[in-house]
Amino acid sequence: xxxxxxxxxxxxxxxxxxxxxxxxxxxxxxxxxxxxxxxxxxxxxxxxxxxxxxxxxxxxxxxxxxxxxxxxxxxxxxxxxxxxxxxxxxxxxxxxxxxxxxxxxxxxxxxxxxxxxxxxxxxxxxxxxxxxxxxxxxxxxxxxxxxxxxxxxxxxxxxxxxxxxxxxxxxxxxxxxxxxxxxxxxxxxxxxxxxxxxxxxxxxxxxxxxxxxxxxxxxxxxxxxxxxxxxxxxxxxxxxxxxxxxxxxxxxxxxxxxxxxxxxxxxxxxxxxxxxxxxxxxxxxxxxxxxxxxxxxxxxxxxxxxxxxxxxxxxxxxxxxxxxxxxxxxxxxxxxxxxxxxxxxxxxxxxxxxxxxxxxxxxxxxxxxxxxxxxxxxxxxxxxxxxxxxxxxxx
Amino acid sequence: xxxxxxxxxxxxxxxxxxxxxxxxxxxxxxxxxxxxxxxxxxxxxxxxxxxxxxxxxxxxxxxxxxxxxxxxxxxxxxxxxxxxxxxxxxxxxxxxxxxxxxxxxxxxxxxxxxxxxxxxxxxxxxxxxxxxxxxxxxxxxxxxxxxxxxxxxxxxxxxxxxxxxxxxxxxxxxxxxxxxxxxxxxxxxxxxxxxxxxxxxxxxxxxxxxxxxxxxxxxxxxxxxxxxxxxxxxxxxxxxxxxxxxxxxxxxxxxxxxxxxxxxxxxxxxxxxxxxxxxxxxxxxxxxxxxxxxxxxxxxxxxxxxxxxxxxxxxxxxxxxxxxxxxxxxxxxxxxxxxxxxxxxxxxxxxxxxxxxxxxxxxxxxxxxxxxxxxxxxxxxxxxxxxxxxxxxxxxx
Lengths: 395, 397
Fold this sequence. Notes:
The structure holds 2 protein chains of 2 kinds.
Chain A: E1 2-5, H1 11-22, H2 41-52, H3 57-67, E2 70-77, E3 81-90, E4 98-103, H4 116-122, E5 132-137, H5 155-168, E6 174-178, H6 181-193, E7 198-203, H7 221-237, H8 239-246, H9 248-257, H10 259-272, H11 281-292, H12 298-301, H13 303-309, E8 325-330, E9 348-354, H14 362-365, H15 367-378
Parallel strand pairs in A: 4-5, 4-6, 6-7, 7-8, 8-9
Antiparallel strand pairs in A: 1-2, 2-3, 3-5
Helix pairs in contact in A: 1-2, 2-11, 5-6, 8-13, 9-10, 10-11
Chain B: E1 2-4, H1 10-21, H2 40-51, H3 56-66, E2 69-76, E3 80-89, E4 97-102, H4 115-121, E5 131-136, H5 154-167, E6 173-177, H6 180-192, E7 197-202, H7 220-236, H8 238-243, H9 247-256, H10 258-271, H11 280-291, H12 297-309, E8 326-331, E9 349-355, H13 363-366, H14 368-379
Parallel strand pairs in B: 4-5, 4-6, 6-7, 7-8, 8-9
Antiparallel strand pairs in B: 1-2, 2-3, 3-5
Protein name (chain B): Alpha beta-hydrolase
GO molecular function (chain B): epoxide hydrolase activity
Keywords (chain B): Aromatic hydrocarbons catabolism, Hydrolase
């Protein structure tokens, strides 16, 4: 049974946050450090000042509640009991929407569905354009979903809870879209529930290991550049990943106790992973507030990395790719781009679109481009048109 | 040079108390113990003690009474003048061998606390050498000023350490170091060895691997040491990776949350030691030095970034110039890892080596008698480094 949900952060939580921010202590900064050592001090001071005075959470909360119809429902996860899961659910404005599950990653949230939902559910006014019923889940431990209490809640469980949500909403067949950790979850859904339930999957980040007979000399310039970006990411941008994957609790004490610390931890990624996206301060603060006010607290969300690393499902572990059709959208500032020759390791790519702008947070940075790709992939004339029985996105 | 006494202002103490009173804790997974990081029960207990009960003034007084401290300005090429805090205790008898003790992270001058009396007193046994001990707070740590510009790496840490010894009148000296102190004292041996640094002793030995290896020749202990190093890289170096790439981002957390800082450091104090029985007040004193540090806790992280950027980090392959200055090792089994004898030539000219069956990363704090015993053997009469410092051999006249 679902319950309607409205975000309603308590006033004690709001005043506690304000009070913490008012007593914030800042570190110093080296001369001319720029972004090299992490988030610049000036950015932090400006954002914190805004968060303290000016940023209006109540207003942001109201806007979110108006734009995104939200619900919660209990979902049973094998071995973990019942978890109360928060999600956005909007049906198409017309016709029979293709059921689409949108799965966020870290440091994302259901908020990343905000711009694409109106586009997906309304269509473009062009009757050739398919429409979707959109479900954007808050993964357990994120947003307003309950977190697991026990160890071992890994990809399999994220996959299970996501699938069960779609089933509970009456969608025996559905399609998925995911980036960051959401890409791994939707790949898992495609692998386990593909064919019978998940009919096609779309992602904006592809990862797989090179095939056995890999020939690096055949890579295009773009592909070489993409791999070089990945190496650079591993060299200088993946410290958070290594830490989350090994000592999330130790870091968690900082993120739970310091809104400034949490802000820096997330903001650094929002800027460095996006493609010159002109974040407004309030946009950043809304994003980070969701982590600060999250039901399970900010420390819970990073356990996902640890669990994946310790369940034999770490990135790079060989596993057979899903067989259902998949689509991908390539944005130039994504963290990794693999050569086409590696695609078979990811899945059965029937749709591919390449863009010349956009980064990691595709749904937020380039919603029209991402939705355009989904419409092409799933619409009439597209490679997976009509893949969901009886719900083809038209009347 | 000025005499120095630690004297944290009352506002800093009350601010800390207030932050602790408003601490917000995360939850914890059932039965997670130490696997995911420092356990919640430990952190809550430590925070409660820090808030009510832990008496910083009392600890401060003890430190000031035990460790004679000073500050002096030292010029560092390209970085201007830095005001350096250090402990300086001369031997109680005879001509103490000048010994510079260099800490690492999350260490501090505090790590010299237990070894200073043993080194300077010589345990009453006239056959044992005595030392004049200098334990500096590296720039950005303890009560030393931090550098303001980017690029302050081993070269600079070595320079400031060396200049301190010269300023104290020790043209010749020896060194002891662990953690970053091992690398910094290696740099001192490289730059100032022979003429100034006459011998060096370390308890963390990492270098290599060499171009050619024969793993079948490694002893069981060596294999275990390499395995421990592998495990460290697999599961224990997340802190290193973040500090070496985004120290500023992490720094906002550690500067703003004493709880976060406590967890960050306490996890290492426990994981890196050999069943050492930390008391809560011992931990809190250690962490308070970081919280109350002159440059703030974020500054201490930057050494990782600077060292990596200079290509001198833990992943470096080989050094261009291995010092020839005589080198001594003390091996403690719970150190983060160790390298096989076959790789020693990448570190230095080993003239002294001791194997212990207990102790970990913070050797001077965990096993002061063992560490000091090693130094006394290495530098004492009939030791391989006896008399290296002209006119100051650790005995009478």
